[in-house]
Amino acid sequence: MSSVLDNACKRAVSPGTERLLAGMTLAAAGGINDEKLEKEDFLAAYGTFQLDASSEPFTTKTPMWFASMTKFVTSVAVLQCIDRDLFGLESPSDVDRLLPEWSQPQILTGFEDGQPKLQKARGKITAGRLISHTSGLAYDFHPGLLLQWRQSRGEGPRAMRGTIPDVFTTPLLFEPGTGWAYGPGHDVAGLMVARANNCTLEEYMRENIFDVLGMDDTTFEPRAHNGVAARLPPMVGRPLPDEPLSDETASLNNTRNLMLDHKDQYGSGGLFSTAEDYLKLLKSILRNDGRILRPETVDTLFTSTMSPSSDVALNTTLTNPAMAAAMIPGEPMVGSPGTGHWTHSLLGLISLTAKEGGLQAGWTQWGGAPNLKWWIDRKGNSCGIFATQLSPPGEKRHQQITHFFQQEMATRYGRS
C-alpha cells in the first residue's frame, strides 16, 4: 500500500472533530495478468467500532449491513436460474407463472381531484427489467407520484415494512422497458428465484453462491446465522456536512433495524456481509472462473440493457443532486463539469467514462446506503469494495478515500 492511501485512511479515523469515519474495511483483487499469474488480494481495515478510540477495532471480517450491495448477489441468482432454464430473462409468461401479483400491472399517470389516475400497462414486467430498474416499479419513499399515491390511501411509505407482495404491488410509473426508476425490482426478482426453487432466498443463495465461494458471514438472517448480529458495529452519522460525527445521529439506524427484524428476505437490501466475503464474489465474476455462472452468462452482466428512453431517464435521474450523491458517490453529478455518461446492465451502473489515473471506461459499480461501494473493472483487471457504516447515504467528506483506493488498486492490478 502506498503512503498516500495509508496516511489518508489513518487520518480519516483519527479521533477528533475532523474524524471522517469510525471504522472501514477495504478489499480488492485482480484478475489474471498478462503472465497468467494472480497477484495477492489486498485487505486492510482501519478504525474502531465506535468513536471511542478504545472500542473494538474494525477488521476485514467485521460484518456490516450491506444494504443495496445485496442487488449484485440477487442479479447473480437470477442469472443462475436462467442458466438452469427455470425462467427466462425476458419472458412475461414466467412472471405470470411465478409472480401473478405483478402479471397485470397498472401505470400511475397522475391525480385528478386528489384521486389517482391509473391505466393498464401495455408492456409486461420481466426478470431482466426487474434487475435493471426498467420495470416501472419504484420505491415509495422518494418524493413523487408514488408517495402521493400512498398518501391518497392514508398510508405512509411501506417499503421493507411487510412481505414483498404486501408492500411492492404498487402501480408502475412508466411502461415497462421505457424508463428507469430506482426501485424494488430486486426484491421481486428475489421472490421469483425463491418460488422457482421452492425455498427461501437465503436457502437458495447459501447452496448456490455462499457455500460455493466460502462466504460464511453473508446472510439475510443475522440473528440466526453465525452470530452475525452480535458482531455488528453501530452506525455513526454526520447530521450536517460541517458537523462532527456522532453515535446518536445515524439516520439509517431505523432502516438497518428493519433488516435485522425483517418481514421478508429482501433481494434489494437485506444482506449482511463482510468485505472479505464480498470480495470472493467480486473475484469470481471478474475472473469469470465458472464457479457460479457460465462464462458466456458473465459477459451478459456487463452489457447495457437500456433502451434509448431508459438511458435518458437514468442520466436525468443523475442530474438530481440527492440521487447522484447516493447512486454515484464521489463522481461528478450528470450535467456538472467533468461529468460522464452512465448506462445500466443487469449488474449495476456502467460508467462510459474513464477515471483519470484509475478505472477504465466500462467499469461497473454500485453501492449501499451506509456508504459502501463495489466496483469491477474488466478492462483494467481490478475489483474491490469499500465498506463502512456511516449515515447519511452519499456523505461527501470521506469520498476522497474511495478515490485514492480505486486509483491505487487500478495501478496495483492493471495489466502491463
TrEMBL record:
Name the UniProt record assigns to this protein: Beta-lactamase-related domain-containing protein
Beta-lactamase-related domain segment(s): 45-398
Family of the protein in this entry: Belongs to the class-A beta-lactamase family.
Entry-linked PANTHER family: (LOVD), PUTATIVE (AFU_ORTHOLOGUE AFUA_5G00920)-RELATED, BETA-LACTAMASE-RELATED
UniProt-listed InterPro entries: Beta-lactam-related, Beta-lactam/transpept-like, Diverse_Enzym_Activities
Organism: Paraconiothyrium brasiliense
Keywords of this entry: Hydrolase
UniProt cross-references to Pfam families, sorted A to Z: Beta-lactamase
